[in-house]
Fold each of these.
Amino acid sequence: MARATYTEIECKSALNRVTNMGFNWSLNPYKGCVHACAYCYARANHSYLGLNAGEDFESKLFVKTNIVGVLRRELASRYWKRDEVAIGTSTDPYQPTEGKYRLTGGIISALADSSTPAHLVTKSPLVIRDIDELRRLQERAGARVCFTITTLDPDIWRIMEPGTAPPPQRLRAMKMLTEAGIPSGIFLAPVMPRITDSEDALRAIFEAASEAGATFCWSSPLRLIPPVRDHYFETIERNYPELLDRYRRNYQTPDTPAVYREFIRERINRLRAEYGLPGEGARPTPPPMPMQLPLIGA
């Protein structure tokens, strides 16, 4: 992994309108991610910046230093309907530099002040730092925290997610959040064929998540769009060369064959039922909205 450099930039908008994602708005304080996950779909976004999806994504990062102020202005608009906002859809909002910039903490505070519900995806136990603000957001509008966990195998973790906190640390953080009354669960994604998709491997994750108090489990099989596929295949060639030909055959398009997707869906659903963890359709009912919003920035 190359040494990371950070470029401070200013954004014109904080909230991004999205479609066909199960939510309408997303928000990302950073571009690029030092977690360096081999499979990360967000790698492709760096190509829009004239950078590559490999080393550049992991080492040339951008920080939206004004995002909290921009977000507060957008949330104060009379047109804002307080839709749920997804935080961390492109890069991890709690990657290490958040310890310095504290942008995600400011974002959560702004959302709580405006009674806007949110869900957040991370691989980092740093989220615990903002547990009080997350609790306030949950009480005012609704909050969920989703920890991405793809494997409990330390060797696979080091290969596929070299810059992340170990999975047991994520599970401990999840337990702390659920004990604080913040709905938290796991994002078991991507499920990587022939690497993390065995019955035993998936069951181990479900068992650990259940013991940590998970309230839901989202999941999806590996998907590889072209810039990400090239980088992922390099990782496979270095570490699992016996699988490379199989991957090339099965990922001629971004999705693996439908028969495999159905096989994984059935396996995951069976484990969900066994451990009592609802899936993508589960949406906790947020608390009632206050009759009148506070003045933003007052």
Amino acid sequence: MSENRNGKNENLKYVKLYNWARTLILSGVMRYGEKLPSEHMLQRKFNYSRQTVRTALDELEHEGLISKVRGSGTYVSFRIGTGNNDVPHIGLILSYFADYMFPQIYAGIESVMKEQNIGIDVAVTKNRINDEAVFLERFLNSNAIGLIVEGTRSAFPNPNIAMYDALAKKNIPIIFIHNHYSNIKFDSVEMQDCKCSYSLTELLLDNGHKDIGAVFKYDDMQGMERYKGFIQCMADHGMRIDDDRIQWYSTRDMDTLFSRKGIVSLMRRFNGCSAIMTYNDEIAAQLTTAFENNGIKVPDDLSIVSFDNASLTETSAISLCSADHPKFELGKRAARNLLRMMDDPNWRESNYSYRFPVSIVSGNSIKDIH
């Protein structure tokens, strides 16, 4: 049984949620006095039982990181010290703190920066362009020595060009993770989302599936690339794409996508489908639960493929066929490339981009229906 850096057994169900909250708190993403998501929201996000969520929260409370207020909720009770302002630091801009992969990506970045005694200042845009502008200005004025950025609403051209130019003119290297902007040229470390999607779609076709539905996110580049791979593969195999069987959503739609009304809508949209591709494992896990609650079993009645290989389910019966996200290695690669950029006066003219090779975790969520 493997253990994480805190000595927690990674195979225990509550540890993924525990690590997620602990990293958010210790990294400063969630600060003293801020309220954690409700138990119900955490249940939905991680597809965990109420008892598993409570076990994770009890552990965090025991360590003094959170405190529960009866009738009010759970709050961060840990204060981050002011630290040494003379220690050099990089900025890390994320689009959304609720990303369940954040602990491993952050750990990868931290493992590299710790060796160089470089701190990490984390900012979260919540996928809002205005917030991104505020944080870019903060890092411009705080003597950050480099930036790692996850693009905000990266499916669209970014309006903060002047701020990025100001950072570059100040010779603050910038590298993107997961995505990049179409109208701003910076290097990036990413998955090959289009190729991953093509491979997953081909797996479904190879197993006899023709009526394939999909759930894609429209406000980030990853969603667009995954859609592109899906339609390219379907077209290459002479398959018809039914637009009515594609569900689009944005960051702001998450609360309604799996509401009671939303689930009814999804059931209607995917009626007649033998398989579904989902934007990520969070969507796949919630969709699996919603369908099984309505008597539709995965993969017997419906096959599902996804992205991230995050294992967001308590059931051992279903293991998603998923494009493997490198997580820790992605953070590590981005941090190492940023350090190299810091030593390169011509970093803007050099190439520090990297694309991870396609890797599909087979799982057991596809049924051969030939």
Amino acid sequence: MKVFLSQADFNTAMQITQKAVSQKSLLPILSGILLNINEESIDLYSTDLEMSIKHNIACRIENRKDSSSFVIPARLTADIVKSLPDSKVSLNVDEKNSNVKITCGQCEFEVKTMPAEDYPGFPTLQKDIVIVVDGKKLSEAVKQVIKAASKDETRPILCGILLVIEKGRLRLVATDSYRLSIRETAIGGKDVELKAIVPARCMDEVSRVCNNEEVEVGLAKNQIYFKTKSTTIVSRLIEGNFPNYQQLLPDGCEVKVKLNREGFINSLKRVSILAQNNTLVKIKIMSSSIQLMAASVDIGSAVEELEAQVDGEGMEIAFNPQFLVDGLNSISEEEVFIELNSPLRPGIIRPVKTQDFIYLIMPIRLG
């Protein structure tokens, strides 16, 4: 049997499904991607038993059998397909010898396959709660909050993003206990309510595949799925209680600073070159400017002053510069507010024009 498909489609499919391939499993079959050849398309499946991805691409088939499924090594095949020229690709499936020939132009690769019957089945999609959301809004919201999610697997709750849908609005919340991101946006569907802690790595993949499509979101007891026209991502939920983040949000602020976002980012990057292992940048707030300072005893120091619109008394406070940059990069507006109450209490970064995003960051105590 021969299968013909475009290199671009095949490459996209491999890059998407490869994200759920197990990197640590003792089961060799989980290092592969299952291909199921239909009448005019191929379904690609991957799973690490926590997250599963299914992606469909169109193809043309010659000498088709009733059904044909096999497992290909994920990383090797992805590297091969990525290296091919942008042209037609043919897959010559030889089930008798357990291999598939991948041909494109003058290139030909032969890859050993594994039996499909050894591969875990794709999760059954439960539909206890279902809502359709704007993929672009969901993608943008995820990209704004995901930097604040923890990567420390000893605290699994913090490795997730709290997803809440209620009263026609979507809210995403992420925190690693040093910073907190909250993004809200209107999505419609006022009669549907949904609340779940979704692994950040799942939400990251969702943000990549749902940019300009409507996304069906379904929630069951212990799993959630996100479905577009060609891709379905299913993930187990993280069990437990998300931190009570609302109690961290201050009612007001003593000092409010208005800054050009890009200028602030560039200054932070320059000054933090001298932060080195000290990992803090001091910010001195004055009447109409702020001063950024960093120093390392064995290397030297850096100081830079930025014009700012300041409302309130002066203050000196210190932050992790990379955390500041992450928060500022999550905002697309030209100007931002920094809201502070004291050198020991968390600061807030938010856009000037809209009220839909909050980035809270803990300060570093000055010696």
Amino acid sequence: MSAQDIKEVVKEKYGQAALRAAAGGSSCCGSAPSSEGCCDPITSSLYDGSQTGQVPKEAVLASLGCGNPTALARLIPGETVLDLGSGGGIDVLLSARRVGPSGKAYGLDMTDEMLALARENQKKAGIENAEFLKGEIENIPLPDNSVDVIISNCVVNLSGDKDRVMRESFRVLKPGGRFAVSDVVVKGDVPDEVRQSVLLWIGCIAGALRNDEYASKLAQAGFEDIAVEPTRVYDVEDARQFLAGQGFDVDALAPQVAGKFMSAFIRARKPQACCGPSCCGEAARQ
């Protein structure tokens, strides 16, 4: 399965999710609690009422994340924030409120339907210090050293070229800038048939890195102060849910997968002082 194949499948799935959310339906399952029929334990119950009340319901319905980076990331008024794979815009709009009028929140997405939904949600929320950009997280359309904080919510694992994502993140961050994302990671090994499933890839499972691989890729890109902090470990019943309907022998596979996948908050920092060409983004462009 090539990186381009993955990209096309992801684009199609998230385009469909945006259209469902725009029509008032769950993106299956967005942030709807499991009691409302959510089919995916990874994306359920991520935001509390104090946050969902700040944004249009369509932004909540379109959330397909695995965590809540806006609650975990330290954002300061006046900072510039970039959300990789911003979807319906919930994390961008929440971040824009936190950095205030003197700050800026960018959302980056490659899906036209999600961008249209996010811009409509921004209009409904009346938030002026946000901007949604079309592009790919492997080729961020922003200048070197222009962003204080990068956030993302279960999107880096969808990329077929994660090393490129890390290098591009490093390039656009200012010296001292922070990488603070929620993502799905793996502890240990999982069966090959799970890794090779396209449907599980777009469900944030097959493309997940091991926690040590994630840290290693960040270090290779130039980051320091790297930490991978689990926020939720998926048990055997969770495993049954995300394996169901994918053509697997669920009873046989679920025990092998249980406890190995987890949502995590990944932190890293770009060094404060420029120590070579990579600090200025040259290495990321090669």
